[in-house]
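Suppose a colleague, Dr. K., hands you the sequence of a protein chain of 474 amino acids and asks what its three-dimensional shape might be. Before reaching for any lab equipment, you can write down a predicted structure in token form. Begin with the sequence itself:
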Amino acid sequence: MYVGIDVGTSMVKAAAFDDTGRELAVQARPVDLTIRGGFVEQDMEEVYAAVVAVLSELSAAVPGPVELAGLTGQGDGVWLVDDEGRPVRAAASWMDGRAHELVDQWLADGTFETVFRRTGSAMFPGCPGPLLAWLDRYEPASLDSATAALYCKDMVFQRLTGERATTDVSDASMPFLDPRTRTYDNRVVELLGLTHRRRLLAPVSDPVATARTRDAGLPPGTPIANGPYDLPACALGAGVTAPGDGLLIVGTCLASLVGTTDLDLTGEPAGLYISTDRAGYWLRAMPAMVGTAALDWVLSTTGVRHDEVDALLAATPPGANGVRVLPYFAPSGERAPFVEPRLRAELTGVCLESTRGDLIRATCEGIGFAARHCLEAAGLTGSLAVCGGGTRSPAWMRLLADVLGRPLRVVEGEVGARGAVLAAAARYGVALDTAAWTEPTAVVEPDAARAAYYAKAYQDHLSRLTEARSRSHP
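The predicted structure, expressed as tokens, is then:
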């Protein structure tokens, strides 16, 4: 048995697999986000307790020896810990927007672009650079008392194993890692005014760190590997390992990833290059801030249940009877395929005749247009896999195939946990049939007529986005 642990933003999951990649059982537990005035934080003790709980429940549901475990989780944010890996303060989430003024300043004075040209990372308010700089300015006591500024999975790994905190090249990619040398770029640290906080950056373990678990949910002594974080872990779990092939993760975050061996730091500063366990191979990532979170907000606001979405999409025509949604709902604005910290969502074309179905379809279409924008910017030329919570809606998958104008290799189940196991197996030298582990569950083909309609609607989306971006500047 192999166990994958995925510490997500709103849900912590643990999945058990047999050696053919068949999913044996999954345990999940929600975790809270505290959102107030642009601050988005998480209780680290709650997150860790959820990890231990799902592992304990999984062990009870599928008793037996565990060959090895792999760990992944949400990226970015700042998780300040002491020597024991215990929290110094609440974790600042990747969704946090408090540092938008610093990003605005760095956009204006050229620091933002300089950092991108050196690391391939386009900073946004919720990534560690701006958050650490904000904490250094407004909450220095927290940094003074911390031993390390970790990423989510690194905190969990330290608590599960007792090993000193490290991170991996994927998490370290934003924003301090030089993707060519796979080490921290101290000039970037200096540009962000953080040289005196350099000690907080966890050592980069390349390849990923391994250890054995203590008595915390898994059998003591279970071999476990730390990383990569959830985006590249999903790419592994979906079989996206060749240049040109892509992955769309329709989750809380709408993430677009395309494999590449070309490190081009000359284009528009947006997204990031994620370093992988293969030197010379990166994932060109365009992780838009909001995916299913946008739909969840609209569902909550309109009183529509998740199990009603498919029927409403089927009953509403393409174009949603004139209703349009620009799906930029995050309090920190947008980070891909452009950076606009002040950009906000827009809902237009609504009248007294508009229905709940119109609002739902317009939101799903808007998310699809955002995904197309990101995938084009990331350089998609090959096949496209899709995973995440959004794949549970067949109607949304058909809509996405039409909006994107290409077939979708739908990979269901716990794809991040699956990728974490594959990464752990590679690290420990355990031979697994990766083709069998990453087999798609379905292929959704686009409808030619609807795809042609959406190709024109996408151009309208880009025009409206340009106008919205111009209005977002003070």
